[in-house]
Amino acid sequence: MDKDRAKHQEAELLEKVVKKDSRAFEALYELTSRSIFFYLYRLLQNREAAEDIHVEVYTQVWKNAGGFRGKSRVRTWMFGIARNLAYNEMRRENIRQTQDLNETFSDEKTQRIYADFAQQQHIQKAMAAISVKHREILDLVFYHDLSYQEISSLLDIPENTVKTRVYYAKAAIREILLEMETGQ
Amino acid sequence: MMTGDINHYKELLPEYINGRLDAETAAHLEKQIRADDDLKKELEELRLLKKSYDGLPGTIQGPSPAAFSRIMQNIEALENPGRKGLERHSSFWDGFRSWIDAFRDWAAVPGHAWTFAGVQMAVIVVMAVVLLFSPADHAFQTLSTDPPLPPSMAHINVVFDGTAMEKEIRELLTGLNVSIVDGPGRTGLYVIAVPDGQSVDQVIVQLKNSEIITFVQKKI
Fold it and tell me: For the CA atoms of chain B, what is the radius of gyration?
């Protein structure tokens, strides 16, 4: 389904959910649940916790559907609910990760890790090792296909910060690939 | 090219890959990419990064079929707090909750909290003494063993395809008159119970024929 059609369909379904239409709610769930669950799972890195929050997200969607102002795509609004609940959970569990990044690479190093880049499994392994913040931004850009503007509104940060965060997230991936290559 | 310019172009690359740049900006960026090896490399790496997501959703199982039921239960409770069908269930939990609240109020008094801590300590000491002096020849069951399943029913291990929709899973299981009794495990493994009088082999064949199942095996 193309993005515009999905966007339109999600908006129509949410309008019906506001009127407490449970069939529309089920259809919205079918349309969005995998994406929302994937987002939560990648943030929390724990299936059970992700599923608990997932249940909570859709309960909130039902409860607060009337609060959707149409300023963003429905799915982006749902990501926002998911994000708030997931970060609360992470704060509780204190599993938020932080990492210092070294984003300078020589051309020679770049050349060497370049070959490894072709191995997508390595990339996903590296992905699991970067910070939650960096994994989240890459997921939003490359998997959920959100625009910088949408991400800016979702994460409540300026668009320029979105751009630099993507840049540093990719640099972090490179760094880890390099470490994997040198066996550090 | 100035470093500032390069960084500006690099920042545009993800939006370029996702086809979000207007034609004019995209054309200008393409011109810069052709002229600069560093930008070319950056673009190639970002493309590979995006490509690495292609097979990823299949490796992560979606929410379990039970998730939607849990959501609907929450919604039911929100919409019908005093509904007859939920009353028995609710009244128990309401009672339990009010008991907890009463206890919390009682424990909020400092003297009571110390009394409660003393009782807890005494219980721990008694349990430690019992464990220390009890015979050691009990058959312990570790937490890693499977939970007990109804012995009269046959069980089947299954893994659903990562792309399977919750609705499809529900339809398949309802059609076969079987139900999930355990799972998902870390690898996405579910245990399905087959009611007495129903042919397990036939259910297995039907599960194997389903496009949303990737693994089926009778649980021994």
Answer: 29
